[in-house]
Amino acid sequence: MQFKAKKQLYLNTSMGLICLLVSSGAMLLLLAIVFFIARESWPVWSAMGPAQLIGGLDWNPLAKPPLLGLGAMICSTLWTALGAILLAAPIGLCSAIFLAEFAPAWLAAIIRPVLNVLTGIPSVVYGFLGAAVLVKYFEISWHMASGESLFCASLVLTVMVLPYIVAASESALRAVPSEYRQAALALGVSRSYAVLKVLLPLTARGLLGALILAFGRAAGETMAVLMLAGNILLFPTSWFSKGEPLSALIALELGTSATGSLHYHALFAAGLVLLAFVMGVNLFINILMHYKGKRGT
User: Fold this and answer.
1) Model pLDDT for residues 64-77, shown as the tens digit of each residue
2) H helices of 50-149, where?
3) % helix / strand / coil in the chain, to the nearest 5?
């Protein structure tokens, strides 16, 4: 017995060390990526200043001096990513509630694999379908000269992020102990009331995490938005304007920029802004939920 206890203790300690090494390695990898991008973008930050680089609305790397404002691209990124979340959130959350609480087992067993397949489709296929179907639809039905727009990109991103929202939200709902459901139903309330008033408040953190995951996926998507957003370097005044999100800007121009030029460093600055924005949203939501959790206790 003593030998078995020592063996179990050794296994637990080894597993803990392995997990610590893996998590530390992942954190160091993230820090290394941030450091590399920050180092490559530093020349343009120091030459132009954060206010001119982030707030500037003109982008012309060939001008004398070069105009490298990222404001229009940042706004295009927000239109496409937040628009996709606005469309996908209600559909995804309702689908997750249906799968977790109301769907028969046989129907859920059909829907879940279909959603998993959607996550594996390459983004270029989504972009191609959007260009072949949605762009043509807007051109013919709405009599537009070109159907490409930030709204069109958001529609395709909605389909792309929907499986992430459904899967993460359903996992959060299923993680609630069954005693909460049984206690609510024992009080005589309907199942819908129990879901809305008991389960959803308990899973608020998990549901927000699902939306954050989807937002990061939408903001970082490149190929689909590159094919559908219109790629115009002007400030988008509405959801239906054309634009060029940060990810599309980097993909289109990194190959043509001269290494070491301000143009080259500005593209790294665009990547840093995109990375900082996604990480900032994650951090803000985590702090907010931690604060709410402490107040709840």
Assistant:
1) 888 888 999 999 99
2) 50-55, 71-97, 105-120, 123-129, 135-141
3) 80, 0, 20
